[in-house]
Amino acid sequence: MSGQPQMPNDLDSFWMPFTASRWFKQNPRMIAAADGIHYTTVDGHRVIDGTGGLWCCNAGHNHPKIVEAIQTQAASLDFAHNFNQGHPVAFQAANRMVELTDHFDHIFFTNSGSEAVDTALKIALAYHQARGEGQRRMLVGRQKAYHGINFGGLSVGGIGLNKGQFGTLYPSTAHMRHTWLAENFFSRGQPEHGAYLAEDLQQICETYGGHAIAAVIVEPVIGAGGVLPPPQGYLERIRDICDQHGILMIMDEVITGFGRMGTAFGHQHFGIKPDLMTVAKGMTNATVPMGGVFATETIRQAFLNGPETMVDLFHGYTYSGHPLASAAAIATLDVYRDEGIFENAAQMASVWEDMLHGLKGAPGVIDIRNAGLLGAIQLEQNGAVGAAGRAAYEALWDKGLSVRPIGDSLAMSPPLTLTESQITEIGDLLASVLK
């Protein structure tokens, strides 16, 4: 079939992810094409992509340099695995990734953020085992945190609806409280109150013994839990407690990585140095699935104490460092650098913040949160949980703006190429529905 993609006749075969399929089929929103910050549906409706794909199309859609790199790579080496053999483009991509960081020396490639999180948790457990501290088995997460949907990430994640269908997962987990506090409603950027909530980690150490905890995982800014920036001093205190008890700090930067905060990575924006860092999404501008775990030299060296012929880490994926993904990653980093996309995100952050908070006072808006080029508008519950968010999402789509409803929160993470006039346009569309 050639030309514009058509609406499929059968919508039953594809079991859609995170979708109320019966509701979707009543009014299917079907995207046929994308360019820049816009989607085009099968019926020609133009929609601003206010979520940057799914927090991931940082350089906008269909960037020609990234498209060309993927096409060129597919024509020369379509696939080679990296189990006791390799191909140059994976090593080149790894070198470029490490150059973006201040203190990481290595990256382990995965295919998604979910795989990156489970990989980081396994590395943390294996690291302590290699150092003779195999009693460190506990993993600590947070309420409202999202760390993907694999067993480990779901275990440390803190969104109850994501866990309810599956019962007990990794059993040795504990959770800190979330940081969404009423006294911080309508804060601009990092809220003033809530640093004391980091003491939850200290309480967990006192309850179970700090010597029993392998790692704590935090998002610099909670994303899929509703866009929750960290309170001032909160991340710093978690880092201090980890250092005090020998706990590894994992930062999940699947959303905040690659420019979302105006810096290469969110931890740089907040001035924190984690021991491990998970990434994905903006890594290849979402063109080819790819994720990764950054590790320090200290972590890496712990795995090199056995015989020279022994596998370092008994873990990996068929597609780790896939040639097409690696080529896409290199081209994406070139675009970020050459077009000053991180710098643009930093410049637009205050404009974005002003636009969002200009909606304060709109009927039903009870909170607004922002960090970098992330934002969320919290709506007053109207009927069942999520009904207000879903209604606003539908109305905005019809107007020409795509947002992500998270319960009764409207989350946004637009491409980092955003201009001031485009921010104004997004604000006008939001106002037309909310006001």
Kindly report the spatial arrangement of strands forming the biggest sheet: 4-10-9-8-7-5-6
Number of helices: 15
The helix/strand class is alpha/beta
Helix and strand run: HEEEHHHEHEHHEHEHEHEEHHHEEHEEEH
Rg, nearest Å:
22 Å
CATH class of the largest domain: Alpha Beta
- The CATH architecture assignment of the largest domain turns out to be 3-Layer(aba) Sandwich
Unreliable segments (pLDDT under 50, ≥5 consecutive)?
A: none
Q: What descriptors fit this protein?
A:
36% helix, 7-stranded mixed β-sheet, 15 helices, 435 residues, 4-stranded mixed β-sheet, Aspartate Aminotransferase, domain 1, Aspartate Aminotransferase, domain 2, alpha/beta, 15 strands, 2 domains
Helices, strands, pairings?
Blueprint: H1 21-26, E1 31-35, E2 38-41, E3 46-49, H2 52-55, H3 64-76, H4 88-99, E4 106-110, H5 113-130, E5 138-142, H6 151-156, H7 160-163, E6 173-176, H8 199-208, E7 213-218, H9 234-245, E8 248-252, H10 266-270, E9 276-279, E10 291-295, H11 297-301, H12 323-338, H13 341-357, E11 365-371, E12 374-379, H14 387-399, E13 401-402, E14 404-406, E15 409-412, H15 420-434
Helix pairs in contact: 3-12, 4-12, 8-9, 13-15, 14-15
